[in-house]
Specification:
Blueprint lengths: L1 E8 L6 E9 L26 E11 L3 E8 L41 E7 L4 E9 L14 E10 L4 E11 L8 E9 L3 E10 L2 E11 L7 E8 L5 E12 L2 E11 L6 E10 L2
Antiparallel strand pairs: 1-2, 2-3, 3-4, 4-5, 5-6, 6-7, 7-8, 8-9, 9-10, 10-11, 11-12, 12-13, 13-14, 14-15
Length: 278
């Protein structure tokens, strides 16, 4: 399980100061058989403790620029305007979102300071940029310019057929690791029937995803989808899910998830995620 409590404060009506507390079972369930585990896995540390999960401030700069400054828990995909693929959110497995965002080779990037900008050149063309570090603070051995990761993503977001983006991610850790990622994301929306996926390259290693999704399937607010993902380590994940909005407080998502870690045994799971929001 994962439980979150958000405290949001606004000073101008357009900004947000968020402080989030989170508790969980300290187990990314299915991670042994399904690479990356579940999308909603999260913990408060050992023994189901409550931890301070998010501290960030987001605010506009004029009419076309927004900014975010974070004290912790801001990762690459938190800086982007859109992850493009429609499986990110409704899917039960974490592989529904683009896995390459957190695969730069910089362990812990986003655990400490982060800052980013979103610049809307037009209503459809948006540039995202973000910088995240591993650790800083009274007990840290590195500062904000030692272990780091940065992301730049250029988006084309339409109200019609095509949503697309190109992404560049790079970084450096204390071991000198520096593995750049170049990726492209695409979503074709045929009036609620979407065909989507991505392709990413990291120093010759490839990761990709392809699938289809249907919005408002058998009811307003529902979402169905099926996709296949392969990460840089040749781990494979496939999932079929159906997200049902029972009411404004409760969403139920049954799913069938297939996983095959590289060199490991394949596994097939049935899973049901129940989400309560108040």
């Amino acid at each position: 399980y994962r439980a979150r409590l958000n405290f949001d404060t606004s000073f101008t009506g357009e900004d947000r100061l968020r402080i989030r507390f989170q508790a969980g079972d300290n187990d990314n369930a299915l991670s042994g058989g399904v690479p990356s585990g579940l999308a909603s896995a999260g913990s408060g540390g050992a023994g189901d403790n409550v931890r301070l999960d998010d501290v960030y401030y987001s605010f506009p700069i004029g009419s076309r620029i927004s900014a975010i400054i974070s004290a912790n828990s801001t990762n690459s995909d938190d800086f982007v305007t859109s992850t493009i693929v429609p499986f990110d959110g409704p899917s039960v497995a974490d592989a529904g979102g683009p896995l390459f965002y957190d695969r730069s080779g910089v362990d812990g990037a986003g655990d400490s300071f982060g800052a980013g900008l979103n610049i809307a050149f037009t209503d459809n063309i948006i540039l995202d940029a973000g910088y995240a570090t591993d650790e800083n603070g009274p007990d840290a051995t590195e500062g904000i310019f030692d272990d780091y990761e940065f992301i730049v993503q250029l988006n084309y977001l339409s109200d019609g057929l095509i949503d697309a983006a190109v992404t560049y991610i790079d970084g450096e850790d204390d071991g000198g690791g520096d593995e750049a990622i170049i990726a492209g994301l695409l979503n074709l929306d045929f009036g609620g029937f979407e065909v989507a996926g991505y392709f990413a390259d990291r120093d010759g290693d490839e990761s990709w995803q392809a699938g289809v999704a249907v919005s408002d399937f058998l009811g307003t607010g529902n979402a169905a989808g099926i996709y296949y993902t392969e990460d840089f380590n040749d781990d494979e994940v496939a999932e079929a899910y159906y997200s049902m909005k029972i009411n404004k407080y409760w969403t139920l998502t049954p799913a069938v998830i297939y996983g095959e870690p590289d060199g490991g045994d394949d596994s097939l799971y049935g899973a049901i995620r129940s989400t309560f929001s108040f």
